[in-house]
Amino acid sequence: MSLYLALDFGGTKLAAGLVEAATGAVLARVRRPSPGDAWRSIEEMVDMARQALAEGRRARSDVAGVGVSFGGPVDEARQRVRLSHHVPGWENLPLVQEVSRALALPTAMDNDANVQALGEWRFGAGRGVADLLFVNVGTGIGGGVIVGGRLHRGRHGLAGEVGHTVVKPDGPPCTCGKRGCVESLAAGPGIARAARDALRESGRGGKLRALAGGDPAAVTGELVFRAAADGDELALAALADACRYLGIGIANAAAIVDPELIVVGGGVAKAGELFFGPLREAARAHAAPLDREMLRIVPGALGDDANILGAAALAEQENRRT
Amino acid sequence: MSLYLALDFGGTKLAAGLVEAATGAVLARVRRPSPGDAWRSIEEMVDMARQALAEGRRARSDVAGVGVSFGGPVDEARQRVRLSHHVPGWENLPLVQEVSRALALPTAMDNDANVQALGEWRFGAGRGVADLLFVNVGTGIGGGVIVGGRLHRGRHGLAGEVGHTVVKPDGPPCTCGKRGCVESLAAGPGIARAARDALRESGRGGKLRALAGGDPAAVTGELVFRAAADGDELALAALADACRYLGIGIANAAAIVDPELIVVGGGVAKAGELFFGPLREAARAHAAPLDREMLRIVPGALGDDANILGAAALAEQENRRT
Known about the structure:
Two copies of one chain form a homodimer.
Chain A: E1 3-9, E2 13-20, E3 25-33, H1 38-55, E4 65-70, H2 95-103, E5 107-111, H3 112-123, E6 132-137, E7 141-147, E8 150-152, H4 182-186, H5 188-201, H6 206-211, H7 221-229, H8 233-257, E9 261-265, H9 273-285, H10 289-292, E10 297-299, H11 306-321
Parallel strand pairs in A: 1-4, 4-5, 6-9, 9-10
Antiparallel strand pairs in A: 1-2, 2-3, 6-7, 7-8
Helix pairs in contact in A: 3-11, 5-7, 5-8, 7-8, 8-9
């Protein structure tokens, strides 16, 4: 039996999936907006899990276990949520216990970046790799580390946090309270801020300005990518800067882990060479000399199913352990 | 049987020891300057190993194996030296084969930073810790990572290289060819260079200037530590700057590994609070918020025996595996 229910609690969206682990096939997907409250999110998710079973024409007794991806830190034994940066009411909530009780199935949980790392390693771009560094780039920057074919969580479940490594001391403020973290320089909001500042200071960036309806305040990370794809020089410069700092962060993490492969997932995984070209160049320029030629950086392969497939991989791993 | 021969090939010195692994006792030590040539170093070392056996009143047949610490990169299967940055003739030399043939004992090798990490974990400040980050600060800055009670070498044997992570883009040039590596800012020569530059630019630093015989060019990292211990403000500022960048490098590495403990060895391990006070403060200030209170940084406990005890720990580990 290799069927798993995969539940993804995101900041704004909930998703449930029914996954056949042997093939990596997603037999059913259910997505809904988050109701914006912890307990109501759990109720909604349990209902979505039942709907996924019904859509996949399977019974609960066909399922070996449940994997949960949570969009925020979970405690070291991975039984409780620590907090959500987006939704109130999650503090210290015993989510594993609640889900396993409601669905009467063994349940395992981890934060979304660790889950995605596991998913890319089991089903995606990192199949067959022993040591893997995974980085997710989106609104924030998260990461996960596979060592010797196992997810390395670290002492407090916080390993792989490439986004909060400091690569520009005295740089821009980060959501975490520090300055010059990779996330503050290379995630969507950081790219947008840098491009907005540049637009206000120069007459260039006509295509980006037009995309933003003439209002620099309306610039988003996504618009910077679109303008860069259209050849806008100001947008390309903002993107190159972001890639430079992300490249330093990745090269630094690679100097610690010395991975076989680096997988970069999240929205940027779809951006192609526009993003991966400058990123690879920056990472190699800042890698240790012996690492330089060996640094392999590839886009994540799981797209929108990364959390669902990762949660299924987590459930499968826990199932095998018991 | 828990007796091991431990051989340490350093850039300028050779050391051999006879170690009882059950207790961590060094039964005999032999030290000689390096003859400055690869093959002559091996001959010399084999002679030193025999002398250590004689001094410890043991026969070769009492010994379970040999551990070799090499002061430079070794290849991924750890059979060959890649190169020495100090001594010519080491390129691609099959050191494990030569030593095991000459001494007729099973032999294991690793680079000195990995060996020291293993030594601190087995016999020193990191005993009983599952996940450990080790950093050696001296003329250069090396490091090693223990994950789940095992040395994590990484894909190319290059894991744990905290010294060559970049923490100040466009900073001073590093021996590795990059700029702004931790090593360029926080190892002995980097501290000395910063203090020399400050001496030339200001009238302060009277105690440091006196220690250097009035000649800024004569300032060394060690003199900066001595002047700082004597309250010299310029030396204290240079040391604080070095601790800041080393602290960022350690906090960044901790964000990737999430270790239970960070051990800092090398010459600075003896410097006490003068060094560890500012280092802890800098590392905590740059750690991820959830890590901040949990970051534990302690001095290495093995002193001058770090390489010998580490090499014995390596030999013991290999012996148990077979």
